[in-house]
Specification:
Length: 232
């Protein structure tokens, strides 16, 4: 399975350092009641069937490719024309991961600021997130911080695992380096270590399908292991 104090001010869009996740923000949104934080992954049948149902959210700015990633995973192909997601869109699919059936509930959240007030209801109850940025637009990388803060605030579980997806790798005009993204994940993992949460990073392309299945597999496997174990 993949492994993976700054002053509380927003990062400058022009900064090459990119996003920063503040430690105080993690603590603020940590669920203090152990029973709530230990909520089990919902079993769709019985314990013997090794079938689980997990809710995931796709987060990130508008037009970074969230819907295309979801459609690729569902086998719906790639659409060149971008259609804006309004509020949130839902889909479900069942996959077999290491002899375990996982039913993914996938909530694709609209990235436009106008929908910020309606998004909280769609975060609630999620076990993790796929946070997507566009490799050709630096501001979408910088905005990951606020997206993850929003996730922690409204998930109902506090700090949950995130897999960062550097999307549109099929394009040539990259403005965010792999090193930038890896540095962000390393910093994020330092902050979430005390909560026993790991986060991950992959380069993806919704157009070619690069690492799309792998992203859902990694996150799903990690969530099932973490929330179904006896000692967590």
């Amino acid at each position: 399975m993949s492994d993976k104090k700054k002053s509380p001010k927003k990062s400058d869009k022009g900064s090459d350092k990119g996003v920063v996740l503040f430690e105080d923000n993690i603590k603020k949104h940590t669920i203090e009641e152990k029973d709530t934080n230990k909520t089990e992954v919902q079993s769709t049948e019985s314990q013997q069937t090794s079938a689980y149902m997990i809710k995931l959210v796709l987060i990130g700015d508008s037009a970074v490719g969230k819907t295309s990633i979801r459609n690729n995973y569902l086998g719906l192909g790639f659409e060149k024309e971008h259609l804006t997601t309004l509020g949130a869109d839902f889909a479900a699919t069942t996959k077999t991961v290491d002899n375990i059936q996982i039913k993914y509930q996938i909530w694709d959240l609209a990235g436009q600021p106008m929908f910020k007030n309606v998004r909280p209801r769609f975060f609630k109850g999620c076990f993790g997130a796929l946070a997507v940025f566009d490799i050709t637009k630096k501001e979408t990388f910088h905005n990951l911080t606020s997206w993850i803060q929003e996730l922690y605030k409204y998930s109902g579980r506090g700090v949950v695992p995130v897999i960062i997806l550097s999307n549109k790798m099929d394009l040539e005009d990259h403005v965010v380096t792999v090193e930038d993204a890896q540095e962000f994940i390393e910093e994020l993992n330092k902050k979430t270590k005390e909560h026993k949460i790991k986060n991950f990073f992959l380069e993806t392309s919704a157009k070619t399908g690069k690492n799309i299945d792998e992203a859902f597999r990694i996150l799903g496997e990690y969530i099932v292991d973490k929330y179904s174990s006896d000692d967590d």
